[in-house]
Amino acid sequence: MSTQTGLLQPQKRIGWATWATFIIAALFLWSLIAIEFSPGRMIQVPAQVARVLSFFYPADMAYGWSAVLPAIMESIQIAWIGTIIAAILSLPLALFGARTLFPRMARLVKLISATARAFPEILLAIYFVPIVGLGAFAGALAIGISSVGMLTKLGAEVVESIDFGPVEAVEASGGSRILALRYAVVPQVLPEIVAHWLFRFELNIRASAVLGVVGAGGVGGVLLNTLRYRHFEKAAAVLLLTIIVVLVIDMVSGEIRRKIIRG
Amino acid sequence: MSAVPAKPPRNWLAWGGTIAFLVAMTWWSAHGIGFSLTELLCNLAGGSRLLQESWPPDFAFLPRLYEPFMETINIAIIGTVVGGILSIPVAVLAARNLTLGRVTWFVDRNFMNILRTLPDLFWAMLFATAVGFGPVAGALALSVFTVAVISKLWSESLEAIDMGMPEAVRAVGGTWLQMVQFGAIPQGLQHYVSYALYAFELNVRASMVLGLVGAGGIGMILEVQRANFEYERVSMIILAVLVAVLIIEQISETIRRRLE
């Protein structure tokens, strides 16, 4: 005859989750104090944001069609060329970066790709602008180089996950390593790698949109200038058109990716 | 008789169309941005001069980077924590199996997608305009950016959870909130931590460049030195950023792997 009602509570002890929460809270408080983000300051933020937003209406669409849309087109072009450069460079690197195919070379390739990934593209653009001059070309090179790292890493992971049967079949029938790559590896990995290229293109549109800040072409410079000179209606046009164009490209590209992966 | 199966017929129209589109797009883009290999090759001389100017990095400048560097880390921490907390309701309401209703789901989902379209530096420019130049603008910008990153990824993993537990909570009379809290979130917690760490990595990288638009951190020094063509200092800053990003990424990746 038991008088117990309900279930036993598991014994409470201070687990790692509590510690982690405590440490994060401490880091958070330290950061707030360090940048002087006091509660008094926080209370002001919503009003400040609302005030600026109220200047945004109505968007200056005449400016949008004449100045913003061409800049967005330039951002798309930068992203496209950057993605193409990265795709061409990363395809061989992804093959050589696969542990399962080239154990020794893979290490070196992975190290290079990790370093390339650590660079924000805007820092690369800072170097390319003085080399090839202000403009979109510098932006495309920066985007291209900085995308190589991620595409190589993702591509190598795809190659590492392939079925080895076809490779062995080509080699068993006397084919060379190169022939095995061409007929057994590439056909298996290409759909997924192309899907990664498209995904990177979506990311690159956002990346190229900000490159204008350092003079590397695209829509970022337009936004910076309209905000700097307090032309809020024009800035609103920049934001509106950027949101719409990026949404459409995301949707189309996402749909294509899903189709490619399904085969 | 050989039993080689016939090759499946290719859809030449689709292939031709795809290739034509790719070529046209590439031609249009290359033309639009003034892509030219000759220009690149002709300017390599200028490039090598620039590299000579940037080398060696000005190590005497390193101590002056300490303060802005810490500010950068502070911005990234605040952005990740605030954004991480705000992204919980956004993600839950955007998960088809947990949301409150079709309208809530639709509104929240589109809100999330719109947040995702704008890059981090756009948010930084907007907040710098609204609340003034400085790290507060950067922290706010990264908070919004973090919501965009985490909520999208996490709502997808929440959609894949086992619905048995949430249904059990409902069956014993739990409210919607209790269902989410006890039935859904525990299952998605591991993913959440992993995405939050990933967002932190992105935020560290982003916070390094926020200063270019006046939103605080090490980027503000970078912008000053770049404008003065002090390339030895620029390369010192970039080197320091690179090392810091790689270290933080390594730590974060180690934690993420141990969680799995």
UniProtKB/TrEMBL annotation, chain A:
GO terms for cellular component: plasma membrane. The chain crosses the membrane at residues 16-37, 49-72, 78-102, 122-145, 205-224, 236-254. Keywords: Cell membrane, Membrane, Transmembrane, Transmembrane helix, Transport. Residues 72-253 form the ABC transmembrane type-1 domain. It holds the Pfam family BPD_transp_1. GO terms for molecular function: ABC-type phosphonate transporter activity. It is found in: Cell membrane. The keyword Transmembrane helix applies. It is a multi-pass membrane protein. Belongs to the binding-protein-dependent transport system permease family. This is Phosphonate ABC transporter, permease protein PhnE.
UniProtKB/TrEMBL annotation, chain B:
Keywords: Cell membrane, Membrane, Transmembrane, Transmembrane helix, Transport. GO terms for cellular component: plasma membrane. It is found in: Cell membrane. It is a multi-pass membrane protein. One of its GO terms (molecular function) is ABC-type phosphonate transporter activity. Residues 69-252 form the ABC transmembrane type-1 domain. The chain crosses the membrane at residues 12-30, 73-95, 121-150, 202-222, 234-252. InterPro entries: MetI-like (IPR000515), MetI-like_sf (IPR035906), PhnE/PtxC (IPR005769). It holds the Pfam family BPD_transp_1. Its main location: membrane. The keyword Transport applies. Belongs to the binding-protein-dependent transport system permease family. NCBIfam families: PhnE. PANTHER family: ABC TRANSPORT SYSTEM PERMEASE PROTEIN P69, PHOSPHONATES TRANSPORT SYSTEM PERMEASE PROTEIN. This is Phosphonate ABC transporter, permease protein PhnE.
